[in-house]
Amino acid sequence: METKQPQAPRHDDAFIPNEHANIASEQQFVLKSGNTFAVNDANGDIRGHDDGLFVNDTRVLSELVLTFGGRAPSLLSGSVSSDNAVFTAHLTNKPLPPIGGARTPEGVIHVERKRVLSGHVLHESIVLTNYGTEPATVPLSISFAADFLDMFEVRGSTRAKRGTMRPPMVENGEVVLRYTGLDEVERTARIQFTPDPDSLTPSRADYALAIQSETAISIYLSVTATTRALSDASEQSKINAAEAAECAPESGRPAIREALVEAHRRMRERRRATARVRSSNPLFSEWIDRSLADLGLLTTDLETGPYPYAGIPWFSTAFGRDAIITSLQMLWLQPSLARGVLRFLAAHQAREDSAFRDAEVGKIMHETRKSEMAATGEVPFAMYYGGVDSTPLFVVLAGAYAERTGDRALINELWPALQLAAQWIARHCDKNPWGLLDYQRASEHGLANQGWKDSQDSVFHSDGRFPDGPIALVEVQAYASTAFATMARLARQRGAKDDAIEYEARAQNIRDRVEAMFWMPESEFYGIALDGHGELCSVLASNAGHLLAFDLVERERGEAVARQLESTLFHTGWGVRTLAAGQPRFNPMSYHNGSVWPHDTAMCARGLARYGDRGGAVRLLQALFEAAVSFDMRLPELFCGFTRQRGEKPIAYPVACLPQAWAAGAPFMVLEACLGVTIDAERDEVRIDRPQLPDGIDWLEIGELRVGERSVSITFRRVGGQVIPSVEGDVRVVAVL
């Protein structure tokens, strides 16, 4: 292979250093394909902050900036298609410097940047149209770079030592950027252009484009990422990697057209797996469609089936807890997602103990990473088990999936994994003096807090001090009790009556302990946690709403908790705060101590409905919908927990993932609670209990809802003062109005 020496930069005045001061927009746009995702600004530029092209948790492209004569173009619009398949930016020129004596005025060159991901390849087309009355010569430059930072470095981690960055080079008309990591993996990004630039260096491509009036001209580029394990003993593996690099798809119109077709097809297939949701309110329908598109974007096809990655940019990988809760949110509409999640988690269940990875036999994975730092052991997250709730939630999801689908074959397949999970829960409950499920990290490298609020300061006493471990979180007891009750039901179905009796006793013990040890009569609420001494952390937090979501507590007390969650202590007008106003460490701008998380609000809404306050669930659905309108029709991972003010929008949390799977799934859990829908596959029956709709929605349709081998469409309409369902299909529907 011939290596071309880099060309010296042209010193024409038209090609001056990039203008960095004019950043198009703080808004970011994302695309994803498998384990690859891209984050860019509204101009389509990548500038190497928290954006980039990422493959397997490594940033393989940290800069991709388009300029004209060294100046950023003016932004007209930037957007991602409604199915999340394609990013498009519309731009126009600022006044261009004279080339050959002619000066091009502002706003006569229209630029369309279109970008799509296909596997590990980014394809982009740049179409320039001259709407001026005179020919124009446009000096266009594309600057690029790759820092090959590990995702944890992008997030702020520092490293004592890094791998070797190879000098970038121009090779056979393409730019090759290469890095060899400490994990002995060579990561390469190859950038190709069609047509060839007038000048190509290891950091920039320059064009002088002569465009006639009313004429368009196109440039295509592709960025192909490849990896090669240098330490792999298999020579064939090295040959395959080399062939993959040499046979990388060339940039050009056919390549991007094929990638566009495939991306749209992939998203259509995702939508077909989900029941249809439509309403009389176009904005509400748009929110629902965007949420489904976000879930489709984040869902990755693994060998075990579809799996929703947690969120972009920080968590575009398999998480246990996040995927389980997302599957529970979508279970009534899309049970195939739960099937894929259950099979993946069972396949990666811990089979040995490891303090570094917080792994114990039977435990369900919390997080997995494929990055360099994970491979070298600099962080424990290659396969990390430091979550106390993933294991009971795994069992809960399996039981809910069985009720929803009647798929006993999958339960039989999962039964050994379910038994191991239940044994892990039981062992930990037996170690606790009160039979509760608690946690304490096994290594200083792991997470200090291992519930869903896993930041360092999220669990504390009413005087603000942090508790000694082990810590028993209140919501985890709901998950554990439900897991034991699930195992009891499944064991009875399998004829294991003695096991069922033991599981039932364990479930009841946890219920009793929660009532005896977590209830705060003076506050009419449940405390957030017990510390290692059995002292209650007497803090009012949204965790108690999860008790209601799983029907754990006494009716009267549950109703009291529901009233508190509906009060201004918790309800901001946009959703439920994670921590009640006025509590120690309350901060509406914090990650877990006063912010609003849509999935947490959804859990609370489910709890309100189960304890008789379906109207409260409707109000929360309305609040989340109105928040989503302010966030461009999609809910972020979280936002600030300030009280809603007239005429103001919800306040964004600056580094929230968007999209985030369990935020995208939140409206469907709340909608299920509002409609009072329960699906019983064993009886081939859909039950509807006193459905309600938010204001502004006259009708809502759940179409092509699969129940066993059949399907049904249900339309909910306002009639007088009630919401009445009408049914089309051959599935039995029983409604209580």
Question: What would you note in describing this structure?
Answer:
With 737 residues, this protein is α+β, with helices and mostly antiparallel strands. The protein folds into 2 domains: 3-265, Beta-galactosidase, Chain A, domain 5 (Distorted Sandwich), CATH 2.70.98; 273-675, Glycosyltransferase, CATH 1.50.10.10. The chain is 31% helix and 26% strand. It is built from 17 helices and 36 strands. The strands form 10 sheets. Strands 1, 7, 8, 11, 12, 14, 15, 16, 17 and 20 form a 10-stranded antiparallel β-sheet that branches. The protein has a 4-stranded antiparallel β-sheet with strand order 2-3-4-5, with no helix packed on it. Helix 6 (335-347) packs across helix 8 and helix 12 packs across helix 14. The longest helix is centred in the middle third of the chain and has 24 residues, at 408-431. 52% of the residues are buried. Residues 1-13, 15-25 and 233-248 have low confidence and may be disordered. It comes from Caballeronia choica. Residues 322-628 form the Mannosylglycerate hydrolase MGH1-like glycoside hydrolase domain. It holds the Pfam family GDE_N_bis. Residues 31-221 form the Putative glycogen debranching enzyme N-terminal domain. This is Amylo-alpha-1,6-glucosidase family.
